[in-house]
Write a structure and sequence with these properties.
Layout: H1 10-13, H2 26-29, H3 36-39, E1 41-44, E2 48-52, E3 62-66, H4 78-99, E4 103-107, E5 125-130, H5 137-141, H6 151-163, E6 168-169, E7 183-185
Helix pairs in contact: 4-6
Domain HIT: 26-137
Pfam families: HIT
Protein name: HIT domain-containing protein
């Protein structure tokens, strides 16, 4: 029997299942809760948010998610698409600043169940930090992944990186402990070419 120590999973085991299902979409429920840290939402913008994946492939595995519930990218407005793209760029910056990966995989599961996505009716983008040598015999021979950092520690590191981003607004927290609220990012308006007005 394979055993991997994963103490953060107790939160999933002890969760209130009633909170999991409002119209069947956790990506709609979690940002409405007043518990960003508990929900693992590390950053927010006008139309999207960044959340840590509860079952990461690597430390820092996050998802950038539009606020509007839709399974089709084409259903999003230009403003929503631009905001999502800008938040993706800010997230890549935060991953580099907070975790220092050698690279990042970006991906989307399009096409529902056949694409392998567990949440197919709310579009989102996965960003997975990668390091040289971050894979070993465990996933290949043992069919077991090993996560080397607790989600709370990853949250703290990414929160600090987002708080230092040029588009971060409001209080980023004080003292040694990170705040329980996600970092708010506000991207300026553009003239349509991508240049700020």
């Amino acid at each position: 029997m394979d055993r991997i120590f994963a103490p953060w999973r107790i939160e999933w085991v002890e969760r209130d299942p009633a909170e999991d299902d409002v119209d069947g979409c956790p990506f709609c429920v979690l940002p409405e809760r007043d518990a960003d840290r508990e929900s693992r939402i590390v950053a927010r913008s006008d139309h999207a948010f960044v959340i840590l994946n509860n079952y990461p492939y690597n430390p820092g595995h996050v998802m950038v998610i539009p606020r509007r519930h839709t399974g089709e990218w084409a259903a999003l407005s230009d403003a929503e698409l631009l905001d999502h793209a800008r938040l993706k760029v800010a997230t890549i910056d935060a991953l580099h600043d907070g975790l220092g990966p050698d690279g990042i995989n970006a991906g989307e599961n399009l096409g529902g169940d056949a694409a392998g996505g567990s949440i197919e009716d709310h579009v989102h983008t996965h960003l997975v930090p990668r390091w040289r040598g971050d894979t070993n015999f465990m996933p290949v021979i043992g069919d077991t992944g090993v996560i080397v950092e607790a989600l709370e520690d990853t949250y703290d590191r990414l929160h600090a990186a987002f708080a230092g981003h040029p588009d971060a607004v409001g209080e980023a927290g004080d003292g040694d402990e990170p705040p329980d609220r996600a970092v708010r990012l506000a991207f300026g308006a553009t003239d349509g070419s991508g240049d700020a007005l």
